[in-house]
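Same chain as my last thread, 368 residues:
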Amino acid sequence: MRIENKLIKKIDFGLIAVVLLICILGIVMVGSATHNIGYERFIRTQIASIIMGFIAIGFILFFDYDMLGRLYVPIYIFSNILLVAVLLFGTGAEVWGANRWLRIGGFQFQPSDFAKIGIIICLAKMLDNHKDSLYKLSTIGKILAFVGFPMALISRQPDLGTTMAFAFFSFGMIFIAGLKYKYIFMTGLISILTFPLLWIGILKDYQKTRIITFLNPDLDPLGTGYHAIQSRMAVGNGMIFGKGLLNGTQSQFGFLPEKHTDFIFSVLAEELGFIGAGILILLYCIMIYKCINIARDAKDDFGAYLATGVACMLAFHIFSNIGMTIGLMPVTGKPLPFISYGGTFMLSNMMALGLVLNVNMRRDKINF
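reply #2:
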């Protein structure tokens, strides 16, 4: 019991408090965004997702994260089975144009959200096992193939946003593990040289359209550029102090699409202004900073890589979502962590946060 109390005292309650504040702000904004379409149902679902997420965190904290490292092979296999199942039995194309969801009975979820966590665990262990040979090109190739397979499966759904998320947190973890700068330079050069082939042979027409629209939304203001234009208008309308809850013109009058999921930051910026958006970004910065500190103070490299992977994943989602709402990134359809409406996305992010808290709670070795 003495050991359990010692571990509990090492839980970063400050990180939990920051995430809880973000979640509360998310509930408020989901309620405002859905005010005219039955907000009670959306708020109940969002609160239930948050509660389930914190329960998942509590469950994860019971087990030493070292156990996950020992199970990295089964976790890797299971994660890829989920992604293959999406290609074979996925749903969603009739509504969203891509098969990214699995339906089991009356429950629908997006497997790639959970596969991200699985691959972070597996890549962290892979890097831990090969940290002394990262200078070898053969080791780099093995690791890239390891993360490249699930990325290829996700790109087949197709889901460019999640594929980019995989690439970002994978690069962050490999870099922290000691990737040589010459390999970074080579990767950048190869990416530039192969972009024409990517454009011609891999990217779907709608993905090319998103990139073109990102560069000039006014090419099709009532079609492909509509989302980006309405989002920027909403953000601009908020000015310093915002128009107030339920008073946003773009959101409340239905001009802003996907306002409770992908574009909820636009709703927040319009109704709470620069002040509200700044507070949210500050909370996000504190959250990421704490995750990085936990990675730095981890008792072993595996824990450091785990926390780094989660920090990179969350940072990418935050930047890509806010970036697309203000015109700095193409529209990718990725929600905003702990703010956007969505059960599986909320649960997966909470589980990822549980991994970071687990690393922090066991940052010191305990002698039995």
